[in-house]
UniProtKB/TrEMBL annotation:
NCBIfam families: baf (TIGR00671), PRK13331.1 (NF009871). It is an enzyme of class 2 (transferase). Its main location: cytoplasm. Gene3D superfamilies: 3.30.420.40. Signal peptide: none annotated. Homodimer. This is Type III pantothenate kinase. ATP binds at E6, I7, G8, N9, T10, R11, L12, H13, T126. Its EC number is 2.7.1.33. It catalyses: (R)-pantothenate + ATP = (R)-4'-phosphopantothenate + ADP + H(+). Pathway: Cofactor biosynthesis; coenzyme A biosynthesis; CoA from (R)-pantothenate: step 1/5.
Length: 256
């Protein structure tokens, strides 16, 4: 058994592997430094704070592979024995630039190795990102913009009277021409975001008509459901997979 840890912008994402098989995944809040030191020494989960839930097994495997976008959090895990921190240089994609996020690179590598290149990965998380590689595994490039929740939060926090919209409250598509402030915010953000996703996808298929697309991230299901309603032909060609980074880590281990 071995453990993969993705340190994201707001939470920790975990995956337990048995060989190359992904056994289970779960999320936790960031762990206090004292708890990390305890885990490093004993590997037991018995004394974890009650709000932090780990699935079976009751102890952590000694092998831990980390991919992180938060350097300060990465440093806290350096005391864990047999830890491996993945760096951008270890990912076999060609033409990558030094500031490319390790999460974007790993997700693209995992998607491409699983379903084939050319591959475009859409990450619908805190930021909405597009990252693509061609058939020869050369990075084509991508784009970054604020994600759904971040756009709502910015309007709620940076204006005097606009309400805060929570993504958890979203179910059906709002009316495009709204008659309330809350629905007007939902309409503006959602329809513009979906139109942008559609535009990027169509531009991708102009470059690579047989190019594949995978979507991940916390808002993946919500945005995919909206795309099914508005653009069913596009949605039918998307692969929804939340664990692309873990597939990237596993593919990287097998590549090495």
């Amino acid at each position: 058994m071995w453990l993969a840890l993705e340190i994201g912008n707001t939470r920790l994402h975990w995956a337990l592997f048995i060989g190359a098989k992904l056994d289970c995944t779960w999320d936790t809040e960031y762990l206090p430094e004292s708890v990390i030191q305890q885990l490093a020494q004993s590997h037991t989960l018995a004394d974890l704070p009650p709000e932090i839930s780990f699935p079976a097994p009751c102890s952590l495997p000694p092998l831990l592979t980390i991919a992180s976008v938060v350097p300060s959090q990465t440093a806290l895990w350096q005391t864990y024995p047999h830890v491996r921190v993945i760096t951008l240089e270890q990912i076999p994609l060609k033409n990558i630039y030094p500031t490319l996020g390790i999460d974007r690179a790993l997700a693209l590598w995992g998607a491409g190795k699983t379903w084939g290149f050319p591959m475009l990965v859409i990450d619908a998380g805190t930021a909405l990102t597009f990252t693509a590689a061609d058939a020869n595994q050369y990075l084509v490039g991508g784009a970054i913009l604020p994600g759904l929740g971040l756009q709502f939060a910015t309007l709620g926090q940076k204006t005097g009277q606009l309400p805060q919209i929570e993504t958890e409250s979203l179910v059906s598509l709002p009316p495009r021409f709204a008659l309330s402030t809350a629905e007007a915010i939902q309409s503006g953000v959602i329809y513009t975001l979906l139109a942008g996703i559609k535009d990027f996808i169509e531009a991708w298929w102009q470059l690579y008509p047989e190019g594949k697309i995978a979507i991940k991230g916390g808002d993946r299901t919500l945005l995919f459901n909206y795309l099914q309603i508005l653009y069913p032909a596009i949605a039918s060609r998307l692969t929804v997979e939340p664990n692309l980074i873990f597939w990237g880590i596993a593919a990287l281990k097998s590549h090495v």
